[in-house]
Batch of 4 targets.
Target 1
Amino acid sequence: METRETRIAVIGIVVEDPSSVEALNDILHTYRDYIIGRMGIPYRQKQISIISIAVDAPQDVISALSGRVGKLPGVSSKTAYAAHG
């Protein structure tokens, strides 16, 4: 059985369009096996949500997840990688 090298990363997500939340949750559910933890903060004063997702996954999986999230209307994402791990 092949073991793929994984990386630790945090994906920061800002949701400005509430109509994209259901699609975002569907994407995150698809990648649930790679998600270590998730923190969401509703910032009501600015009418946005800020979400951070910690993942342990192969590089291509992290890129695919971040890319799919970033294509949603009114949603932006950036990924930060751990130096090791």
Target 2
Amino acid sequence: MEYTKADLLEAKRQIDSTLHKLEETIKTLEAKEQPQRYRSQITLAKNRVKAFTLANSLIERELLHL
């Protein structure tokens, strides 16, 4: 599938926004009184950060080849 530069830039913008929200969520959950109670949510959020970071890298690589 072919993507335009505009498509890739918009996807990157959306991913950056989601990454910011996830990072804030992680901070909030880790700052709770009993963060161990939120271990699964923290792990899920951290795994999503890794996945979105990887996606961002792939988008950036693709943008370099346009």
Target 3
Amino acid sequence: MKLYLLRHGRTRWNEEGKLQGRTDVPLNEEGRAGALRAREELRHVPFSAVFSSPLSRARETAEIIAAGKAAVTTDERLLELRFGAAEGMDIFSLPPEERPTYLLFSDPARYVPPAGGERWDELLTRCGAFLHDVILPGEGRWEHVLIVAHGGAVRGLFGAMFGPRAGEIYGRRVQKNCAVNIVDCTGGTFSPVQIAREYCEGV
């Protein structure tokens, strides 16, 4: 079984450098164009199942990519990390090492959430539960599965799939919007096939 794991398309808050978290910011036109490019890149993949975060930026990205192939099922365990009091913050105005998300991607074991935010271990628990409850039982039934989530949630899924190796496999910065990761799942074991090697400097 092959998993195609993406971050959603861009939004106005991505452009403005605002930390989104659970705030439901929709795709902008660039975000929809990015989803269409991803659909073209994946046009030959016959998706058996499609899963998305319920936030509109992820759900619409999944709907665009999977159009005509499979219905989108949303799952709250794919929601973005909750950033609490920092949601809406202009992080582009801060040096990279002072941004609330810096450690989340560079050294998540040391990540300290903003007030009211979600911890790294909580993210790993829900991402691991999604993989255990939804993805692993699908092996043998599904050949190609599309999963559209968020920057923090994608990092959490990598953490749940690969454990201590996740940082080495994933990298140290949030992946670009609509960048495609491909992971094989055989016998309940995850193996990287194609990992997005391009990263964006901001959100």
Target 4
Amino acid sequence: MRYTYAVFKSRNETLSFSGYLKSLGIPCAVTTTPKQAGRTCGISVRFLTDYLSIVQSRFPQRGYSSFVGFYPGE
């Protein structure tokens, strides 16, 4: 399985985004941010890469100011 990490600088926005994905029926987990993502709040939202296009299409509607980016993971 391939995963993608949504990385934020704010713990509150990370947790909010996790709740948002769950409300869309997208399985996800809050987990430690991968080192290659750089300096962040330390936690990220991990979800299956199969859902990336759906997440990206819904993401701009939410307006997260501390969003860093999406990063591939294992």
